């Protein structure tokens, strides 16, 4: 019986959790939808199971429709922790990707009323201190309060305008949210601090996280409650990191899995950059080994003839043995969520059409929404971890019953990875 089941609100984040648990030695697979019995048998025995989704782009009614069968599946599977894996920057809104709406649906599938929310993930530059979230800009940039972050404060769909995650989440219906602050972990009895908060019957408990040394204490608090009754936990991959740290301290973890090297690409590589973040822009500029193809995002979403021409051009370069980097170019972010979703869907269709014409053994997709939609459209049933190319950037192995089986797939969010990430996707070199 798996200890933990998680749902990722986008694919890039879901693969980060996959890598976290696999790196702790757990047998784990990320499914591309709620698996049926046949797919579960293909996956084999599991210590952890994930489902990759795209709820961060959905309205609350659509989220409920998406997440109800997810909750039912994990309840029937008997997991102790049902983890709703949200973005590490918590970018969400009452009407799009609402974390409150997700909790409202999923908490009906667990018996425990305790809903821990882990804020922060230090290994990728996310820090939650006294309930306020801070985030690094890029892999080596300055740290900003999230409502002053140069990218997340002006996100085209869900801009972060409130740094206190209690207020941010209460605006999405999770009221009241109380904070368990970092000094509590330094005491002999952090359990007493947690129980005092639970006595007030909060809607959720937001747990600070700014230093890796606190992971095991957070994991212990969550797991002790989960052993009593299954619970719903919310947060980035730090939820899985915390549990893994606690299991390792207990001696009940299988131990660290041996790392695998990716190796150089054996053929042409397609990389689609659907993110407009400054980090991704620098990565595009540093990718010297690719044939660069600029995409007109607006035309791609509405002109079939233009989309067909782009697919033909990309396929021609790949058949000629060239690595291809296709990136969306725009004068500014989309002005509405509908247009942003249409652009993400159009860029995702490019990947599926190119792979249909030109089978490849390694591809990469940058952009959370684009990744989610593209992988959903591929005829594969699951992913397992090959290696971590950079903190927050996982290269996965595709599982399929057709010729895509074994394809190597890098997924990354807009904020993740060093400037040379796309070059290292070709060489297989890990981050320095």
Task: Characterize the structure shown.
- This protein has a 12-stranded mixed sheet, sandwiched between helices.
- It has 2 domains: 4-250, 3-Layer(aba) Sandwich (Rossmann fold), CATH 3.40.50.10840; 270-427, Molybdenum Cofactor Biosythetic Enzyme, Chain A (3-Layer(aba) Sandwich), CATH 3.40.980.20.
- Helix 12 (337-357) crosses helix 13 (368-377).
- The chain is globular.
- The protein starts with a strand and ends in a 5-residue tail after the last helix.
- The protein has helices spanning 11-23, 37-43, 60-77, 99-106, 165-170, 190-198, 215-228, 238-250, 278-286, 297-302, 304-319, 337-357, 368-377, 421-427, and strands at 4-8, 28-31, 48-52, 81-85, 116-118, 126-129, 132-136, 143-145, 177-180, 204-207, 231-235, 270-273, 291-296, 324-329, 362-366, 382-390, 393-399, 408-412.
- The chain contains 14 helices and 18 strands.
- It has 432 residues and is α/β, with parallel strands linked by helices.
Residues in helices, as a percent range: 25-40%
**Overall mean confidence score, pLDDT:** 89
Subunit organisation of the chains: single chain
Number of strands: 18
Name given to the CATH architecture of the largest domain: 3-Layer(aba) Sandwich
Domain Four-carbon acid sugar kinase N-terminal: 4-243
Family: Belongs to the four-carbon acid sugar kinase family.
Domain Four-carbon acid sugar kinase nucleotide binding: 270-422
Keywords: ATP-binding, Carbohydrate metabolism, Kinase, Nucleotide-binding, Transferase
